[in-house]
Inverse folding.
């Protein structure tokens, strides 16, 4: 692991780091905020998964999480959203696929299967790196994210309910297997057999019996992607049928941007801290 930069903030340290990833077969960059309480011993870990077109830097620069994370004593890990670099297959004119759009899946189709293994990267490789290099209490982990990252957080929590104490999302893609901006990506990454997509679709995972105690979801009513891409009512229906607790807050007048995310970031950090203990 190589440290690219560190900066003191609210008594803690905001770092940016890089390493050679086996899962993605390229160098990967990620950000980690370590709160001041970590000087006295391991602290809980909160994972933040970003959305389409983002890197590790978007939430680090615009998410406004450090003040309260320092107060609450939370490590916040912000991974990249996809593999990057020379030789990585990409579609430069398509912001909904390739670089910046890994969708937190393990691709099975060529030429993407070698590099686009973000599910394994987030659930296996990066946690091992965090555990080995940071004062992290890996018995207390939580996960949240935005849009594509909200989709990733929800699906990962459903498949790892024993690992994560809590899960929340900002404007998540509730049913990516049928949404216009995600269905083409799933087909390219996973192939035309839609049965294989179920492993990465929150509503279908719930329908297939996956469970998590509760979710918190914030969604802006002025989000331009609400009707065709996000569709939180599908998540509400799935959770209702399965008996999963869902706090869905429709926030009047808010859009899809980090102005929306930063407004409700404190609520999510406190919600996770309460459940992390």
């Amino acid at each position: 692991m190589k440290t690219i930069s560190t900066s003191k903030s609210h008594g803690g340290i905001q770092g940016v780091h890089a390493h050679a990833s086996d899962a993605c077969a390229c160098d990967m960059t990620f950000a980690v905020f370590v709160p001041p309480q970590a000087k006295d011993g391991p602290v809980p870990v909160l994972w933040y998964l970003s959305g389409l077109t983002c890197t590790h830097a978007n939430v680090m620069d615009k998410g406004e999480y450090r003040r309260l994370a320092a107060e609450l004593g939370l490590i916040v890990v912000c991974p990249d959203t996809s593999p990057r670099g020379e030789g990585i297959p990409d579609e430069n004119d398509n912001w909904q696929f390739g670089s910046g759009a890994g969708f937190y899946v393990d691709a099975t189709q060529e030429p993407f299967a070698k590099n686009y293994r973000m599910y394994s990267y987030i659930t296996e490789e990066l946690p091992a790196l965090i555990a080995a290099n940071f004062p992290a209490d890996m018995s207390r982990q939580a996960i949240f994210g935005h849009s594509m990252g909200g989709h990733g957080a929800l699906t990962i929590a459903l498949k790892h309910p024993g690992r994560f104490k809590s899960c929340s999302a900002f404007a998540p893609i509730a049913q990516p297997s049928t949404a216009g901006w995600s269905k083409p990506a799933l087909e390219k990454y996973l192939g035309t057999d839609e049965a294989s997509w179920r492993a990465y679709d929150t509503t279908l995972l719930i329908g297939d019996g996956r469970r998590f105690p509760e979710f918190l979801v914030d969604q802006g009513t002025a989000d331009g992607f609400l009707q065709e891409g996000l569709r939180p009512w599908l998540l509400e229906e799935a959770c209702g049928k399965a008996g999963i607790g869902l706090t869905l807050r429709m926030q009047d007048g808010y859009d899809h941007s980090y102005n929306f995310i930063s407004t409700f970031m404190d609520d999510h950090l406190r919600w996770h801290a309460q459940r992390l203990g």
Summary: The longest strand covers residues 136-146. The chain has nine helices and nine strands.
